[in-house]
Design a protein that fits this description.
By secondary structure, the chain is an alpha+beta fold. Helices cover 38% and strands 13% of the residues. It has five helices and five strands. A five-stranded mixed β-sheet has the order 2-1-5-3-4, with helices on one face.
C-alpha cells in the first residue's frame, strides 16, 4: 500500500518569501505566482535586471542563481528561497568597477545600456563555466543575450578581456592552492 506524501500548498493569497540576494536576506509578502524579476524590482528595489521580452529569450533580466546564469523573468521567487541570487547591483564597490564591468567600458560594449546588466551577469556566469574561452566559445556562450543596438563586436572583445583578467586571477588562485597542497603533502 502506498503512503501518502504531505504536500505543502501555498496560496491563494500572499505568502512570506525570504530570498538571499547579494548576500542579504530579502523578505516580502508576495503572491506565489510572482517572478524573481518582479519581486526584485517591485519589493526590493533591485532594478538592474530589465523586463524586455518577459519570455526568457532576450537575457536582459539575467542574474546568477547559485552561480549559474538564469533569466529572472522565468523563475518564481517562491522557488528560490534556498538559493543564492547575485545581481548586477552586487558588482564592484568603493568606486571600483568589477573586471567584467571595466571590460565592457574599455571595449565600448554598450550603447543604450538597456541590455548591459544582463550581458555583464551572463558574462560573469559564462566565465565560471569556461575559464579560457575561444572566440567560438564566446559566440556560443553569450548567444542567450540579445542587443538591439548591435554592439556584439564590443561585447565579444569585452568578454575576451574579462576572461584574460579574471582567468589569470583564477589561475593564480588555483596555482596557490596547488603549491599549498604540495607543501602540505611534504609536511605529512
Amino acid at each position: 500500500m502506498k503512503q501518502k506524501r504531505s504536500i505543502s500548498i501555498l496560496g491563494p493569497g500572499k505568502v512570506s518569501v525570504a530570498i538571499n540576494i547579494n548576500g542579504k536576506s530579502c523578505r516580502a509578502l508576495i503572491e506565489p505566482c510572482v517572478t524573481l524579476l518582479d519581486a526584485m524590482r517591485e519589493f526590493w528595489g533591485l532594478t538592474g535586471a530589465k523586463r524586455v521580452c518577459d519570455r526568457a529569450t532576450c537575457g536582459a533580466c539575467t542574474v546568477l542563481v547559485n552561480g549559474k546564469r538564469e533569466y529572472s523573468c522565468s523563475l518564481l521567487a517562491i522557488d528560490l528561497q534556498d538559493g543564492e541570487v547575485t545581481t548586477i547591483e552586487s558588482l564592484g564597490g568603493n568606486g571600483q568597477l568589477d573586471p567584467v564591468q571595466q571590460a565592457f567600458v574599455d571595449n565600448d560594449a554598450l550603447q543604450c545600456g538597456f541590455c548591459t546588466a544582463g550581458f555583464v551577469m551572463s558574462c560573469k556566469g559564462f566565465l565560471t563555466e569556461v575559464a579560457n574561452p575561444t572566440h567560438e566559445d564566446i559566440l556560443k556562450g553569450m548567444s542567450g543575450n540579445l542587443c538591439r543596438c548591435g554592439t556584439y563586436a564590443g561585447i565579444q572583445k569585452a568578454v575576451a578581456q574579462a576572461a584574460s583578467t579574471t582567468g589569470s586571477k583564477a589561475q593564480r588562485e588555483r596555482g596557490k592552492a596547488r603549491v599549498s597542497a604540495r607543501a602540505k603533502a611534504r609536511l605529512t
